C-alpha cells in the first residue's frame, strides 16, 4: 500500500464576493482547483446521506447505474461503482432519493453558472458558451475499500468545470489528490461547507488556466461523492490543443486489449464534431467490457 500523499490546502473563494473572479483565476492558474463557499447547494451533509442511500436503494438494472469496476479512465482497475443522471438521462421515477437529487442538480447548475459569470471578465471566450447547457451531467460515486489504493485513475476532466461534494475524511483513507509540483498532493478543504471546483480541459483550451491531473485513492474506508460535470454547449466546437497542454480530452482511453473495436475520440479531431458528439465518444472510451471489469 502506497504512503499517503503530502497535503495541500485549497484556497477558499467566496462566490458572493465581488472579488470571486480574481480568486478563481488565481487558484486555477496555480493549482487548477479551488474550494467555493456561499454556493447554491443546500444541505451538503443531507445530500451526502442521499448519495449513500442511493447505492443501497438502486437496482443493478436501473438506467444510469454503473456496476463496480465497469468504468475506468485507463487500463487500471478502479474500485468504484457509479450512477449518472442529467438533462439527457432521467432519474428512475420510483427512486426514493429522486427529490433530493433533482434539487441538487439544479443547485449545482446554478453554482456552475455563478462561477462562469465570475470568470467571464477575464475569460471572454466563456461569454455565451454555456447558455443552453443540455450536456451537463451529475455522477454519484461509491468508492470501495481496496488494497490497490485506486478509486479513480489519474486524469483531467474533459469539460468546463467539475464541482465535487464528497465525504473525504481526515484519516486519509480516502481522498482526492492533485498532481502539483511533481508530486501527488492530498486535497484538504478548510471549510466543511465548501465545494471543490476543478477547471476542466475545455477551460484550459480557451484560457491560460490549468486543467489539473487528479485521482481518487481509497484504502480502508468507503468514500461517497457527487460530481457535477459542467460542459460547454452541445454545439460548441472542440478547439485545437496547444502543444503545452496534457489533457485527457485528447487521450486515447480505450484499453489496448479491448476487442470491441471502439475508436478513440481523438481520431475524429478536426472532423468538425460538436463538443457534445465528441464527449459522447469519450464516454464510450471509458466504459469497460464485463470481462475486463472482473
UniProtKB/TrEMBL annotation:
Keyword Oxidoreductase: yes
Domain of life from the UniProt record: Eukaryota
Gene3D superfamilies: B-lactam Antibiotic, Isopenicillin N Synthase, Chain
Positions of the Fe2OG dioxygenase domain: 132-232
Entry GO MF terms: metal ion binding; oxidoreductase activity
Keywords: Iron, Metal-binding, Oxidoreductase
Coiled-coil ranges per UniProt: none
Entry annotated with the keyword Iron: yes
A Pfam family recorded for this sequence: 2OG-FeII_Oxy
PANTHER family: 2-OXOGLUTARATE (2OG) AND FE(II)-DEPENDENT OXYGENASE SUPERFAMILY PROTEIN-RELATED
Family named by the database record: Belongs to the iron/ascorbate-dependent oxidoreductase family.
Protein name per Swiss-Prot or TrEMBL: Fe2OG dioxygenase domain-containing protein
Native organism taxonomy: Eukaryota, Sar, Stramenopiles, Ochrophyta, Pelagophyceae
Amino acid at each position: 500500500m502506497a504512503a499517503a500523499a503530502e497535503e495541500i490546502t485549497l484556497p477558499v473563494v467566496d462566490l458572493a464576493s465581488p472579488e470571486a473572479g480574481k480568486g478563481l483565476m488565481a487558484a486555477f492558474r496555480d493549482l487548477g482547483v479551488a474550494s467555493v463557499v456561499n454556493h447554491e447547494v443546500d444541505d451538503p451533509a443531507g445530500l451526502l446521506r442521499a448519495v449513500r442511500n442511493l447505492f443501497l436503494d438502486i437496482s443493478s438494472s436501473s438506467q444510469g447505474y454503473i456496476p463496480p469496476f465497469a468504468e475506468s479512465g485507463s487500463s487500471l482497475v478502479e474500485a468504484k461503482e457509479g450512477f449518472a443522471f442529467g438533462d439527457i438521462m432521467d432519474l428512475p421515477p420510483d427512486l426514493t432519493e429522486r427529490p433530493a437529487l433533482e434539487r441538487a442538480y439544479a443547485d449545482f447548475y446554478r453554482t456552475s453558472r455563478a462561477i462562469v459569470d465570475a470568470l467571464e471578465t477575464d475569460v471572454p471566450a466563456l461569454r455565451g458558451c454555456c447558455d443552453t447547457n443540455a450536456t451537463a451531467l451529475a455522477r454519484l460515486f461509491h468508492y470501495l475499500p481496496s488494497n490497490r489504493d485506486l478509486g479513480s485513475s489519474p486524469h483531467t476532466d474533459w469539460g468546463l468545470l467539475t464541482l465535487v461534494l464528497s465525504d473525504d475524511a481526515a484519516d486519509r483513507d480516502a481522498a482526492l489528490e492533485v498532481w502539483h509540483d511533481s508530486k501527488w498532493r492530498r486535497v484538504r478543504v478548510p471549510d466543511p461547507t465548501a465545494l471543490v471546483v476543478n477547471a476542466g480541459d475545455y477551460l484550459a483550451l480557451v484560457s491560460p488556466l490549468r486543467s489539473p491531473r487528479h485521482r481518487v485513492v481509497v484504502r480502508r474506508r468507503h468514500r461517497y461523492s457527487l460530481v457535477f460535470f459542467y460542459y460547454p454547449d452541445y454545439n460548441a466546437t472542440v478547439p485545437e490543443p496547444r502543444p503545452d497542454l496534457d489533457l485527457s480530452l485528447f487521450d486515447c482511453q480505450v484499453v489496448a486489449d479491448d476487442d470491441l473495436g471502439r475508436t478513440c475520440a481523438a481520431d475524429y479531431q478536426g472532423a468538425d464534431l460538436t463538443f457534445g458528439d465528441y464527449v459522447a465518444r469519450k464516454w464510450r472510451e471509458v466504459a469497460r467490457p464485463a470481462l475486463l471489469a472482473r
